[in-house]
Amino acid sequence: MQNSRRCISLLCATLQTHSIRLGIGTSNMRLLHRRNKKHETNVSALFKPVQVQANADAEDVGSELVGKLEKAELLKILNKFTQRREVKALCSENGLDSYLQQQAFGSFRRYCIEAENLPVDLHIIFSDIMQGAGHIDDVFPYFLRHAKTVFPHLDCMDDLKKISDLRQPANWYSNARAITRKIVFHAGPTNSGKTYHAMERYLSAKTGVYCGPLKLLATEVYNKANERGTPCDLVTGEERKFGISENSPANHVACTVEMTSVNTPYEVAVIDEIQQIRDPQRGWAWTRAFLGLIADEVHVCGEAGALELLQKICETTGETVEIRRYDRLTELTVEDSALGTLDNVMPGDCIVCFSKHDIYTVSREIEARGKEVAVIYGGLPPGTKLAQAAKFNDPENSCKVMVATDAIGMGLNLSIRRIIFYSLVKPTMNERGEREIDTISVSSALQIAGRAGRYRTQWEHGYVTAFKSEDLQTLKRILSDTPEPLKSAGLHPTADQIELYAYHLPNSSLSNLMDIFVNLCTVDDSLYFMCNIEDFKFLAEMIQHVPLPLRARYVFCCAPINRKMPFVCSMFLKIARQYSRNEPITFEFIKKNCGWPFKLPKTILDLVHLESVFDVMDLYLWLSYRFMDLFPEAANVRIAQKELDEIIQQGVFQITRLLKNTEANQNMQDGETMNYNVRRITHVKEPRMSSASRGRLTERLLAQGLLTPGMLSELRKEWDAQQQMPPKESADFGTESDDEDNYGGFKKTRRKRRK
Ligand SMILES: Nc1ncnc2c1ncn2[C@@H]1O[C@H](COP(=O)(O)OP(=O)(O)OP(=O)(O)O)[C@@H](O)[C@H]1O
Ligand SMILES: [Mg+2]
Questions:
Q1: Stretch 233-240: mean pLDDT
Q2: What is the pLDDT of residue 440?
Q3: Which residues' Cβ are closer than 6 Å to ligand 1?
Q4: Which residue in 95, 313, 675, 708 has the most C-beta neighbors within 10 A?
C-alpha cells in the first residue's frame, strides 16, 4: 500500500502540486515577465538537495590524530556557525540565498553529527575550534564544499544560464541564416484564398514543403499534389506516405508543422495558419519552421494580426516581409435572430459545441426530431472525420445537419450554409493547470464562423448565428472585432539543451530539469514566450520511476498524447516499462492490452474506449519512427488501426443509439465504475473542486477520471515490480543518436541493446 501511495502521489504531483505553471498566452506576456521575476526569488526551491553519504573516509584518521569529537560540543559549534552574520554574508557571496542556506546548514549539521568518522581535515578543524586553537569561521570552506555537493548547481549557474539563453533563436538555424530568403505573407480572413495562392506557387516550384497545423490538412495537400501530377510525400508524426516510392523521395513534401525539416533545402516552403505561432502548447513548432526553413521563398498564410510580429522577427534575421492581402471570397452574414430551438435546424446547418457532452445532447435531440446528423470532434480518428464530412457534404445524402466541436475550425472542407454557436464559452486550462470556462477568442470565433459559405461549394453565401438569444449580441460583437495582433511567438527547450542541463545536474529528474530550465531561461519577451511544458512534465513524472536513458526519456515525453485519457496514459507507462526492459513492443502486446479483435461499440463508453485505443495505436506508430528496433510491428498496428477507424466510424454513425444504450445502462447500474465512466465523458461539465474539498488523492484522481480503478491496480503492480529491479541512473547517456528526426529538433534515438 505504501508503494502504491508513492506511485499515486507521483501522478498527483503531476496533476496538482507544481508551484510553477506556465499557461502562457500571448495576451499575458507581461504577466509572464513579472512572474519570472517573482520566481527568481524562489527558483532555488527547484534545486533538490543531493544526499551526501556520511563516513566519507573508511578509516577514522581524524580521531587517531587528535582524538574523538564530543558530539554535544560539535553541535554547539555547528549551531553557532549557522547563526553567524559573517557566515551568512559569505553564503550569499557564494550563491546561497536564504532558502539554500537553510537547506545546506541542515544537511551539513546532519552530516557532521551522524558521521562516525568525518574527513580528516574537517575533523581537525572542529578539534582545533573546541580547543580554542581555531576560529569558528574556519569551518566555512568545509561547509561550502559540502553545500556544493548538495547543490551542484552552485558551481555551474553561469553555465546553466548560458545554456538557457534563448534571446536569439534566429541564430540556432545557421543554414537558414546563410541564405537570403524571400518571405511572402498571405494575409486575410478565412476563405479568402490564402492557402490556395501559396499552394499554386508551391506546386509550380521544383521542390517544396507544405507545413500545416493538422494531419488532415497535410494529407489534403499530399492528395492534391499527387492528383495534379506533382509527386509529393506525406510526413506526420505517425505516418509516412510516398508520392513515388519509399526509396526515392519526392521533391515535394506535405507535413505537420512539428515534422518540418530544417536541414533540407527547398525552393518554396508554405507555413499555413501562422497565427498558431502564438499557441501556448504548439507555438514553438511554427517559430522553428519560420526561423529554420531553408527555402528560397517562404510563404506564410494566416491572420493579418500576425504581420507585425513576423516583421519584428524578420528584423532579427535581416529579412523583409512581402505582403499579399486577400478579401473573403464569399459573403458571410450574421443573422438577426438566434436559433432558439433545435426545431429550427435547417439543411446545411452546423451546430458548434465546445464540449463532448453538448455534442451528445445536441445530436440526440436533433435525431429525436427525425433528422440525421454527422458528428465531428477532435478525438475522432481521421478516417471517421472524413467519412462524417463526406456524408454531410454529399448533396445526395439524407444527412444535412452537422454537430461539431471547434475541431472544424481548421482544415476540413465542409459544405456549411450556417454556423450556429451552441454556446460562446469554452472550457480551458489555466496557468495552474486548472479547468476554467472562457469566452471564445475573436480569432477562434472568426475561424469557426468562416467555415460557413465556403467558396465553390453548394452554399456560397454563409450565415452565422447563436443558439441562445442572449448570446447573439455578444456573438455579433465578437465577430465584428478584429483579432488581437499577435504579441509573441512560442519557444521550447531542445533535447540538446536539456541534455546539457542533465550533464550539470545529473541527479535531477527530467521534469525538474525542465522546471529549472524554464525558470532560468532568458527570453526576449518582446518577441517570444516559453511554451507551456505541463504536458511534457506530466509524462516525465509518470515515467520517472521507469529506468530509461535520458534521450529516450525525452523522446517519450514528447509523445503527443492526451493526458486526460487514463487508458492512453496507462498504456504509455506500460510501453515505457517494456521499452526499459529492452523488450520489443509487439503487435501481440498491443492486441492483448487493447482488447483486439475489436467489437462494435454498444454504448458511448465503448466508443470513448475505442477512441483511446486508437490513440494508443497512434502512440505506437509515433514511437515506431523514433525507436525502430523496439517497435517492429508498425505495419500490423497500422492495419489494425485502420480496422478500428472503420469500427469507430460505424459507432459514430449510430451515435444516438449508443447514447440511448448508455442511458439504459446507467439506469440499470449504480456502481462506482459507472459513476466514474459517466463523469469521464462529462468531465468538462464538472465543477472545479476547491483544494480543501478534494479528499484522498486516489479518490480525487478517480473522480476526475484521470485514473481508473484498473489503472490504479496496474500502477501498483508496476511499482511493486520496479522495487524488485536493480536501481539505475536516471541521467544515462547510453544511447546513440544519429539522424535528425525533426521533432522539435530532437534526434532519432536507436537504442543500444543492453547486454
Ligand atoms: N482563385 C481560386 N480559384 C479556385 N478556387 C479557389 C481560388 N481561391 C480559393 N479557392 C478555393 O476556395 C476555398 C478557400 O480557399 P483557401 O482554402 O485558400 O482559403 P483560406 O484563405 O486559406 O481560408 P482559411 O483561412 O479558412 O484557411 C478552397 O477550396 C480553395 O481551393
Ligand atoms: Mg487556409
A1: 96
A2: 93
A3: 188, 190-196, 301, 329, 450, 454-456
A4: 313
Both 716 and 596 in one domain: the answer is yes
* Sheet arrangement for strand 321-325: 240-241, 232-235, 252-256, 208-212, 265-271, 294-302, 182-187, 321-325
Ligand 1: which atom is nearest the Cα of residue 451?
A: 26
Is 747 contained in some domain? yes
Any idea what DSSP says for residue 139?
A: G
Ligand 1, atom 7, lies closest to the CA of 193
Q: Are residues 431 and 550 in the same domain?
A: no
Tens digit of pLDDT for each residue in 297-353?
999 999 999 999 999 999 999 999 999 999 999 999 999 999 999 999 999 999 999
**Which residue, by CA, sits nearest to atom 13 of ligand 1?**
455
For ligand 1, what atom is nearest to the CA of residue 326? 21
The answer to whether position 180 is within a domain reads: yes
Q: In DSSP terms, which residues pair with 182 in a beta bridge?
A: 297
Ligand nearest to the CA of 188: 1
| Host domain of residue 103 | 51-150
Question: Which of 410, 455, 459, 460 maximizes ligand 1 atoms within 8 Å of its Cβ, making it the mutation to test the pocket?
Answer: 455
Q: What ligand 1 atom has the least distance to the C-alpha of 188? A: 21
Tell me the residue ranges of DSSP E strands in 430-482: 435-439, 461-466
From atom 10 of ligand 1, which residue's Cα is the shortest distance away? Answer: 193
Q: What is the ipTM of this complex?
A: 0.99
Q: How far is the CA of 464 from the centre of ligand 1 (A)?
A: 19
**Which distant-in-sequence residues (6+ apart) come within 8 Å of 170 by Cβ?**
177, 291, 313, 316, 317
Q: How many structural domains does the chain have? A: 4
pLDDT in tens, 135-156: 999 999 999 999 988 888 888 8
The residue with cell 516583421 is 311
Q: Look at residue 441 and tell me if it is in a domain.
A: yes
pLDDT by residue (tens digit) across 105-139?
999 999 888 888 888 888 988 999 998 888 999 99
